[in-house]
Amino acid sequence: xxxxxxxxxxxxxxTMDVLLEMSRLLNTGLDMESLAICVRLCEQGINPEAxxxxxxxxxxxxxxxxxxxxxxx
Amino acid sequence: MAALDQKSPNVLxxxxxxxxxxxxxxDVAHQFQYAVRVIGSNYAPTIExxxxxxxxxxxxxxLKQRREADAALFSELHRKLQTQGVLKHRWSILYLLLSLCxxxxxxxxxVPVCCYGSLFAQAxxxxxxxxxxxxxxxxxxxxxxxxxxxxxxxxxMATSGISSMGVFSINGPGPTPPSLxxxxxxxxxxxxxxxxxxxxTVPVSGSPSGAAxxxxxxxxxxASPAPKxxxxxxxxxxxxxxxxxxxxxxxxxxxxxGIDGKFIKMSSPENSYKIDPKxxxxxxxxxxxxxxxxxxxxxxxxxKYTDSHxxxxxxxxxxxSFCAALHQELKExxxxxxxxxxxxxxxxDQGVNDGMESSLxxxxxLVWTYDPKVRxxxxxxxxxxxxxxxxxxxxxxxxxxGKTGDxxxxxxxQHILGLVSHPILNFLYRWIYDGxxxxxxxxxxxxxxxxxxxxxxxxxxxxxxxxxxxxxxTMDKARKVLLIGKSINFLHQVCHDRTPPGKIMPSSKSxxxxxDATELFTDLEGAFQSKIDAxxxxxxxxxxxxxxxxxxxxxxxxxxxxxxxxxxxxxIRHLMDLxxxxxxxxxxxxxxxxxxxxxETAVRATNAQFDSPEILKRLDVRLLEVSPGxxxxxxxxxxxxxxxxxxxxxxxxxxxxxxxxxxxLWRAKRMEYILTDIWKGQMCNAKLLxxxxxxxxxxxxxxxxxxxxxxxIHQMQYYITFEVRVSISPEDIECGISCVA
Lengths: 73, 741
Fold this sequence. Notes:
Keywords (chain B): Cytoplasm, Cytoskeleton, Microtubule
GO molecular function, one term (chain B): gamma-tubulin binding
Helix content of chain B: 55-70%
Protein name (chain B): Gamma-tubulin complex component 3
Oligomer: heterodimer
Radius of gyration of chain B: 51 Å
Organism (chain B): Triplophysa rosa
Strand content of chain A: under 5%
Order of helices and strands of chain A: HHH
Helix content of chain A: over 70%
Pfam family, one (chain B): GCP_N_terminal
CATH class of the largest domain in chain B: Mainly Alpha
CATH superfamily of the largest domain in chain B: Gamma-tubulin complex, C-terminal domain
Shape of chain A: elongated
Strand content of chain B: under 5%
Shape of chain B: rod-shaped
CATH architecture of the largest domain in chain B: Up-down Bundle
Structural class of chain B: mainly alpha
Number of helices of chain B: 33
């Protein structure tokens, strides 16, 4: 039981590594955790277009908030 | 990790929000709600679930950033991913990564349209005093990927300037967003500053106000002109945000082919392409589009002509070759169009990543279509001019159009002329060398009359169709051509001489091809003329030879002279002597066979018997029409039968002329003989009547009268014989024959 599970885990880890590498290549700005969440969401069948727009918006919002904070302070 | 897998999407989303924004769960409530809404509303993807396509796009993206090594690396990773088979929705992940991809060179990421800003706004909504309406297009949730990027690009360009100015106006020169003059990154600043973008609430048809508002902002807040200037032209280039230049270009590409576009339609009453007036377009774009739409109109005209005539069977070979030439030109034009189309496609594929303008602007179209426009104009004018013509007329029309100084136009017309005249030259060569005329559509300038029989072949069967003579063939040449063909036909049919044209013409027939035709026009005077002249000379010579050798034309001419023109004196004398007792009777009692017998006697008795039997058998007596009270002398005439080719030379009119002359001479001769007899009688009687002096006065009068008459007859005969060249010499005959031929 352990070995199939562990091989599964290995495979999963490898996949995540590959994906992280790709994301780094493409300079998406996603770190491991976010990427993992995204992968899970996609595997559950979420529309990637919508998801990507959400992520972009979140990023932008966070940037603007940061800028705002830096301005104010 | 296994435990996390079972989490619901909501939970995951929330954790994502936290992660990215870096805030706690409570703070991200707003964003989380938004995220849920977006995801919920956009459930189904609008693009193809094609993993391969997505990976290709990623690679292209990387290549565009000139990171070939990275592209190769990506391919490796992708391959690895495929072998691992852990993920079920690979394309989804890849697409996600692609859409989140950021070019490290760009200062900021491509941020989607700022409408979301309104929902995320934390700051108080500031009144938008300068430009509320510059998003005329409603910013719905992003649709397909390239469209969105185009939309983002278009409107972002429009807003960046404004928002930057807005920033200035609100915050003073404080924080200088780094990319004020460039990218849409300033939006991020602007939006957050300004808060509520009314764009989300702006009605759809905000374009007129949008167009109106557009010039307002520059006048509005006194921002530095520097950010204004580079942005303004770009805005003008875009026009109002409603119809981008790219859309216009696409439309125009359809119009170029004659298909109505979305905005530019053909209006039949005015017979022109009109841009839908309801469509919001700035004036310059409208004008440029109208200019470009002319190309579509020209294309339609030419297309209509070729379509209507290529199916018309009765149009003839020349017309069809004209249509083929036009079709060829149109094909070139279509090729250009497909190149332009491909250009647009390429941009579509790559997204509008690079550059502010798409590389296919209206100005570029203007430049690239200038040459085709000139060509199409020439062709359209040619089509107009050639309406309703066919055959040689058409060739003349095209030739007339080639008389222009413009070298390009001339080259084009020459090319078309070469193609168009190729059938005509074909006809010509066949006619000259074979004497055959296969002209079902009556295009050639030699016309054959099928109702004419062979005996009238030379004179009536073939004629010139003057309207069909092309303008590059003079009347003289046309006549020569007619003669050549006529001679060949004459030889074939009347003389039954079927020597192949190769024997007649030592020069071989040149291989005719369309190229031949075009070469012809470069050397119209020389080669063509020499060909026709050579053919003419050879054929005529051969014909004369045949006539003389086989049919003894000259001999017949001589015979005519001897018999009909009373050249053979002894025979005529004898004939008259023999006929005297016969012809004094009334005309009605004369029988032809009697007279023929007498004729033959006369022939046998004189030198005429040494003539060739061929000639003698043609000699005959002819009795003219009998009117009451006629004696034999009035109705008698000799006749000379002609048939075959000789009949063509001695036509019926000709023969009747001969007969009339014969009549006249015959009667003059008869008078002469009668007078001679009288003189003979008088001389004899004078001696006898010397003993009767009472009669001497009367006799003297008679003598004088008779002498006068004789004198008169003699003068007249002298005149006829010497002054009027009735008896012509053989040399004169030779000259005459060439004229006749």
